[in-house]
Design a protein that fits this description.
The protein is of the alpha+beta class. It is built from 3 helices and 6 strands, in the order ααββαββββ.
Length: about 110
């Protein structure tokens, strides 16, 4: 099996998935994240959401595909955790700027 090579900020995001402080360092100051029908703007809001989601779902994500689409890096990952429908494949649409995540939208 070939290892998936992800751009550095995206690889760091997945490596730090249960560590909100480390996750926050992956994002630009005014980054926007969309997940579970909500939008979070800025590092503090993103960090708070990620800490809550990590505690609630204990999910782990395993990226298995990377595509480039209209200026975005789209990662498909198998997500397993304490939630209905687990495991599920999700799409993570990253927009990168200056080596950081400027926006992220997570969808089924």
């Amino acid at each position: 099996m070939n290892a998936l090579t992800l751009p550095e900020p995206i690889a760091a995001y997945f490596a730090a998935e249960h560590h909100p402080e480390a996750l926050a360092r992956c994002f630009a100051a005014q980054a926007v994240m969309k997940d579970e029908g909500h939008t979070y703007t800025g590092i503090d809001a993103i960090k708070a959401f990620m800490a809550k989601a990590s505690a609630q779902y204990g999910a782990t994500s395993v990226p298995f595909a990377l595509e480039r689409e209209e200026g975005l890096q789209v990662v498909r990952a198998k997500v397993t955790g304490n939630f209905p429908g687990s495991p599920i494949d999700l799409s993570y649409r990253f927009r990168l700027e200056r080596g950081l995540i400027a926006s992220l939208e997570i969808t089924a």
